[in-house]
Amino acid sequence: MRVAIVSESFLPQVNGVTNSVCRVLEHLERHGHEAMVVAPGRGPSDYAGFPVRTTPAFRLPFYRSFRVGLPSGEIMSSLEAFKPDVVHLASPTVVGASGMTAADRLGVPAVAVFQTDLAGFARQYGMRGADAAIWGWLRHIHIRAARTLVPSSATMSELNAHGIPRLSLWGRGVDLDRFNPAHRSERLRRELAPNGEVIVGYVGRLAADKRVHLLAKLADLPGIKLVVVGDGPAAKSLRRRMPDAVFCGLRTGTELSEILASFDVFVHTGANETYCQAVQEALAAGVPVVAAAAGGPLDLVQPGQNGLLYPSDSPEGMREAVAHLVADGEARARMSGNARASVLHRTWSALCDQLVGHYETAVARNLSPHEEEDLGEKPWKARVSEPSEAHAGT
Predict the structure, then answer these.
(1) Helix H or strand E encompassing 298
(2) Which residues contact 237 (CB under 8 A, 6 or more apart)?
(3) Rounded to an integer, what distance in angstroms lies between the CA atom of residue 289 and that of residue 339?
(4) How far apart are the first and last CA of the chain?
C-alpha cells in the first residue's frame, strides 16, 4: 500500500503528533509498505527510508518553538507525484486542510487522525470566543474524510456532539521496553531526592495549555521532592514560582526512561488532552498517576487501581490526591504494581496493525462501485456515519 502522510508537525518538533507519525512510518517500513511525509518547517529529508517534503511555516509569537504550517502547492504536487492509495492526515488543521483538498482532487480516500484539542488550546491562551470558528473549520475538514480516528472515548463524544461523522476509536501505542520499571535508578533517586523524599514528577511541555503552574499547589507538601521534566515558553516563570523543585529540562531516550521510572507519583496537570501519551508512558514505567478527570486520562487511569483522578477545575483536588499517595506507601506500591499491567495491550505494533486495517477499509470502499451507487456519492462524503462505526476499534 502507498500511504501519503500529511502532518501538522514533524521532526525536529517533538510532540504527540510527531511521535505517532514516526511510529506509523516505522511500522509501514517493517511491513513493506511505501510512504511519504509532507510536513511544515525545516526538518529531515527522510525518515525510516521514506521521503519527507517540507512546506512553509511560521512561529507562534507566544510559543517560538512551535511552528504552524501554511497552505502550499507543494502538498498537491507531492501527492500527485507519489500517487498514494490513501492519505493519512495527522491532526489536520492548516496543512491537513490542504492535504484533504488534494486527496479530494486526486479521488483518493483520506483517513484523518484527530489528536489536538484546538478549542481547549485556544481557551488556555485567552481566546475564549473562538470555539465556534474552530469547530466549524475542523468539521469542514473531517466531514470529507473516509474515516476520522479519535484517541479516547471522551474525544469521541465531543466530536459526535459537533457533528463530525464516521468516527472510530484509535488510541496510541507505548514502547514497553523504553518505559519500564526496570529503568528505575536508586542512584538517580538519591540525586533528585537526597533526603529520601517521595518523588512527585511531571513530564511534558512547559506551556500555558498544560497548566503546569498548578504544580505550585504541591510545593509545600511535606516529604516530597517535585521534579519537572520538559521545556517550553513557561519554563522561566515556573522556575521562579517553584524554586525548590528540580527542573531537568528536555530529556529523551535512556535519560527519560530512567527519570520517569524513578518517580514515585506522576502528576499530569493538563485538562485538554485528547489522549495523553505522558500518562500512558508513566503507567508503563510502573508509576501511579494523578490526572485531571477529563479527556484521554479517563480511559487510562482507573481510580484506586493504577492512580487517582481529580476534578479538572480543582487544583485542591489534585493536591489532595497527591497527598493521599504520598502518605500511603502501601497504596502507592499496589498501584505501581497495577500500572504497567493496565497498558500491556497498548503496543504500537497492535495499534499500527489496526491503522492499516482502517486504511484498507477506506481504500476498499473507495473502489466499491455498488457502495458508491447505494450512497449516491463517494462513501467518505456521506452526510451521516454508519452507527456501527461510531464505536468500532480500540
Answers:
(1) helix 297-300
(2) 213
(3) 8
(4) 23
Among the listed residues 16, 99, 85, the one whose alpha carbon sits nearest the alpha carbon of residue 24: 16
103: exposed, middle or buried (C-beta count within 10 Å: 0-12, 13-18, 19+)?
A: buried
Q: Is the peptide bond before 387 cis (omega within 30 degrees of 0)?
A: no
Cα–Cα distance measured from residue 267 to residue 321, given in angstroms and rounded to the nearest whole number: 10
Radius of gyration of the chain (CA): 21
Q: Do 2-173+347-391 and 181-341 fold alike per CATH?
A: yes
One-letter identity of residue 320: E
Dist CA 43 CA 53 (whole Å)? 9
C-alpha cell at 139: 468539521
pLDDT tens for the chain, 394 residues long, are 999 999 999 999 888 899 999 999 999 999 999 999 999 988 899 999 999 999 987 666 555 555 666 777 889 999 999 999 999 999 999 999 999 999 999 999 999 999 988 887 777 777 778 889 999 999 999 999 999 999 999 999 999 999 999 999 999 999 999 999 999 999 999 999 999 999 999 999 999 889 999 999 999 999 999 999 999 999 999 999 999 999 999 999 999 999 999 999 999 999 999 999 999 999 999 999 999 999 999 999 999 999 999 999 999 999 999 999 999 999 999 999 999 999 999 999 999 999 999 999 999 999 765 444 333 344 444 333 333 333 333 3
- Identity of residue 319: R
The residues with which 52 forms a beta bridge, in sequence order, are: 37
The C-alpha atoms of residue 4 and residue 74 are separated, in whole angstroms, by 13
Phi, psi of 54 (to 5 degrees): -110, 150
CA pair distance 155, 75, nearest whole angstrom = 28
Q: Which CATH superfamily is domain 181-341 in?
A: Glycogen Phosphorylase B; (3.40.50.2000)
Measuring CA to CA, how many Å separate 76 from each of 39, 122, 270?
12, 29, 36
Residue ranges per structural domain of the chain: 2-173+347-391, 181-341
CATH class of 2-173+347-391: alpha beta
Dump the DSSP string for 366-386: HT-HHHHHHHTS-GGG-SS--
In this structure, what is the dihedral angle of CA atoms 198, 260, 279, 168, given to the nearest 10 degrees?
A: -160
